[in-house]
Amino acid sequence: MYGGATVGGRRGRTGQNTMDGTYGPGAADPTLRRRGGATTRGRGRGADDMGLYGGDMGYGYGPGADVTGKPSTNEVYNDLAGQLITYRTNLAELEEPVLIWAFDDTTQPGNTYEYRMRLGVFNPVAGTSQLVEQDLDKKNQIILWSGFSQVTKPVSIPQRMYFFAKDVQDPKRSATVEVARYCLGYWRSEDFEVKPGEAIGKQSKPRTDERRRPGALGGRITDPAYAQPGAYNVPLGLGVTAPLNPGGTDTITTPELIDYRTGNVLVDLVQVNDWGEAPNLRPRSYHEMLYTADGHRIEHMPVSMTNWPKDLLAAYNSVRTEVRKEPEPFRTFKKGGLRTRVQPGMQGGYEGMGGMYPDMMYNPGGPTPYR
User: Fold this and answer.
1) Which residues of the chain have pLDDT under 50?
2) What CA–CA distance (Å, rounded) separates 100 from 296?
3) Which of 61, 74, 115, 226 has the most C-beta neighbours closer than 10 Å?
4) What's this model's pTM, rounded to 2 decimal places?
């Protein structure tokens, strides 16, 4: 687990003043709500947020930038800088409780976890004679541990793969199983015809309609065509019209292969005769798919949506909704892309100039990185 500490509560941010005309008429108008100081966020932002130098809509060089009050990257970093505990922080002067964030990178999809935490602090006088009498029992304690916190509420990790028994072909004694997998930020699904003794799911290439999509305005900025200089020597995609690219192959957001392997083997298809759940207490006849992952424990799943339990049906409907979403172009964060991290002491956002986030360009008063 990894932890980070911030001070609870919110501190005021450093004011950011501009000279009139620097970013357009009215940029220094005191009636406008400026970022920082004692002012608050609002719709009336300075001209640098009105689209002249880009904002949350991505390098708009004209009207159309986001002015809905959405926090910019700069504002988020200002908030973070005001709450960070650094070597300059005097812990003795802190009045607010210290907020500890912990991150668990060992979670597994489909599992549920509960957490409790304790804080360990290095004891700089351990093994010395510099302890006061009331702390002599801590002389050999290199780490001073706090008590454990209360147990958190259950944290459920979403699954990244489902499979659903949809139909049975009696003459072939096979089942149609739909396997859905979360891959590169999107749910994708494929139907497989499986016979007893066969594995459920396999690696499959994306369908043709997913691999080739026509280009669109503001298309993927990593396309070679978009890297060519456009008007005013600005790379295409920086708020200007990107060219259409009919039939362009999207090799960034679409994987070459999708791994639909579930790790389960179909054991058998059996016919079941029972009664429906209340209040529909009626006799019914359907098939169940028996499958196993380890060869010892046999699981079963009703075939057909009309026979699925409520939780399985809810999962299927949720996945189908996500599968229908159109994948969006990938936005690179690599050096040379449009969203590169700022290098301390440098400004700008183009190649050789260090790089800043779009809404931090030309915006004074950004947070000072601590080292």
Assistant:
1) 1-65, 210-251, 335-371
2) 44
3) 74
4) 0.51
